């Protein structure tokens, strides 16, 4: 499995877990708190697997996309993650 696919699944599953607005908080601040761990995880992978990521990737690089409702598909997440990776010089060859 490609790294971007695994990261897309992680984002999709995290959003899916709190997708029901009747069961989980509706306010963005609370949702941000619930999704911080996933955002940190993605930032670490981007830091380690992009050309310029070693210079630092902020933990909140994808938090706005994570908090946004409704949840995104894995395909949408791949587009977002590839865009973020491009901002950091693209994926390293070893990540592909």
Q: Could you walk me through the main structural features you see in this protein, from its secondary elements to its overall organization?
A:
- The structure is a single chain.
- 58% of the residues lie in helices and 0% in strands.
- It has 96 residues and is mainly α.
- The chain has one domain.
Brief synopsis:
With 96 residues, this protein is mostly helical. The chain contains four helices and no strands.
Structural class: mainly alpha
Summed up, the domain count is: 1
Termini gap: 9 Å
Contiguous runs where pLDDT drops below 50 for at least 5 residues: none
What is the mean predicted local confidence, pLDDT? 93
Order of helices and strands: HHHH
Number of strands: 0
Number of helices: 4
Write the layout of secondary structure elements.
Layout: H1 3-17, H2 28-49, H3 63-67, H4 74-87
